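EI: anyone free to look at a 284-residue chain?
SC: sure, send it
EI:
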Amino acid sequence: MGTTARRCAVAVVVAFAAAVIAGCASDETVTSTATTTPVTASSGTSETTEAPPGTDPGDGEYAEACALIDEIDQTAEDDLASAIVLFEEARDAGPEELVDHWDTLTDTFTEIEALGAGDDDLGRAFELMADPAFMEAAATIDDFATDECGLDVNLDPSDEDTTGGLTDPGSTDTTSTTDPDDDPTSIDALQAHLKSEYGTEAWWPVLDDATSWGASTVGGDVEWSVTISNADAVALTASDLEAACGAMAEYLDTYEDGAVSIEIVDADDAVLVSRAPGAACAAA
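SC: here you go
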């Protein structure tokens, strides 16, 4: 079972806000095999598309601005302060007609950076990102990145979900932003299901903030593991742990081809709750 370092990638710059509120950590690890896909705070790492004829991120009148936009797109989600500095540099390097739009992004994310992690803070972040001025600024800069730089930064909030999979706490819509039909045995599909169905449970924030998720196939059976911090381990009761494990088992038994075993462990690899294939989850 291989281990790959998880980087909180920026496929969508707006996902910075969701990552800051959700406490995304740039040093998380995800363990996976070919049967699973590593989960990221957003929908994946950004890709540079082929530039339109006559343009290139490294050439042209606004080459410096394009290079800065590309750098913004690669900035770790937990480094919002660096992104804000890059916003300001891109504003100065770009065309005059984008100055006000860059200022809008800078002001919005500066306020988001100062927010806490409570529901009220998260609600405020969604309010800021739903502001028409922010939406217009993001869409305009997205168009510039595409047309002038040949970059696909997915900044326009109207194009797709740009909230990193978070649900507005003021909304009653709990529909998962990950379609299980894409790969129901992936880590991100499982996490999306747990958030959608069990987001109000005491154990979900702990699993959501886990330092690693992983799965491997051994002899046709599937072994899933989740590692949580020692502080979170102490905070959860045996009932919480068994409920979390049980929710995972119910979902995975539906979609995995092989029999499923589950372990939730602490940072010292001590097993907190486990489940043998076909058995009930039992706290240690």
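EI: Residues 10-24+44-172 form one domain.
SC: 👍
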